[in-house]
Amino acid sequence: MARRVAIVADRISWEERRLIDAAPDSGLRIDWVNDESLCLGHPDGPSVTDYEALLVRSRSYTRGGLIATLAEAAGVTVLNSAKAINACENKAVLRTVLRTAGVPVPDFRLVLSRKDFTRALDEMEVPLVLKPVFGGMGKRVTLIRHADTAQSVYDYVEDLGHAFEQACLAEPYLDGGASVRCLVIGRELVGAAEFTSGGTDWRNNAALGNNSRTVAHDPDVLKIIDTVVAELGAGIYGVDLFRTPDGYVVNEVNHAPGFRAVASTTGADIPSAIGRHLQELLS
């Protein structure tokens, strides 16, 4: 009998559909459970105990970690773990966790107010990047090229409705022209692709349709991946690296990574690899 697994997500995208379609080949049955209607505290709501495992791919900045925490408390296998999701959902927490573990990350300042932003401008040279603490897919990531326009840029941050949305990181602009997305399943790197910005958009992000090419499994990259996984635990991650003159630094770790671009660039059968990993967890 197929093992029952739920994909917990707010919508079905290309990745979720491929995982559902490939599930029978791995002896799994994967159903979609909408995280917007999942009420774990209600006795008449959907029950996580109906499934042997939850594959949490929520794109919410908060729901994934909350659902994973409650599911783990109910004794359900969760991928990724609540610890990993809670770290990855918050860029400031993730950077701190990784830096403490010895993983190279870009220099950064936490910006919670205009006073913080002004201090960051004093301490860091422009150009610099201002990005939301909670967010993904390159959205609201802003390159500030000139000091005389910086305060005007921050006006838009102040106009956001909630402190949750206003929390930002300021970091140096690493003008390397490319980033590397590493797709990790379990503890193994299954595919790596380099993305370069296309057109007039300076951001290197697969979700933005940038140019890509396969890259070899560099020993320095593998060392970083091993340390990230040792800290966060085995799981499914999109580890985004920047190449600098001093080596690679980890920009982000995505707990619910899109993998269409890496799969199409490298030819890696990522849905099958995820299915095998789920079977290993359930055996």
Automatic annotation (TrEMBL):
<dbReference type="InterPro" id="IPR004666">
    <property type="entry name" value="Rp_bS6_RimK/Lys_biosynth_LsyX"/>
</dbReference>
<keyword id="KW-0067">ATP-binding</keyword>
<dbReference type="InterPro" id="IPR013815">
    <property type="entry name" value="ATP_grasp_subdomain_1"/>
</dbReference>
<dbReference type="InterPro" id="IPR011761">
    <property type="entry name" value="ATP-grasp"/>
</dbReference>
<dbReference type="InterPro" id="IPR054562">
    <property type="entry name" value="LysX/ArgX_preATP_grasp"/>
</dbReference>
<keyword id="KW-0436">Ligase</keyword>
<dbReference type="Pfam" id="PF22626">
    <property type="entry name" value="LysX_preATP_grasp"/>
</dbReference>
<dbReference type="InterPro" id="IPR016185">
    <property type="entry name" value="PreATP-grasp_dom_sf"/>
</dbReference>
<keyword id="KW-0547">Nucleotide-binding</keyword>
<feature type="domain" description="ATP-grasp">
    <location>
        <begin position="95"/>
        <end position="279"/>
    </location>
</feature>
<dbReference type="Pfam" id="PF08443">
    <property type="entry name" value="RimK"/>
</dbReference>
<protein>
    <submittedName>
        <fullName>RimK family alpha-L-glutamate ligase</fullName>
    </submittedName>
</protein>
<keyword id="KW-0479">Metal-binding</keyword>
<dbReference type="GO" id="GO:0016874">
    <property type="term" value="F:ligase activity"/>
</dbReference>
<dbReference type="InterPro" id="IPR013651">
    <property type="entry name" value="ATP-grasp_RimK-type"/>
</dbReference>
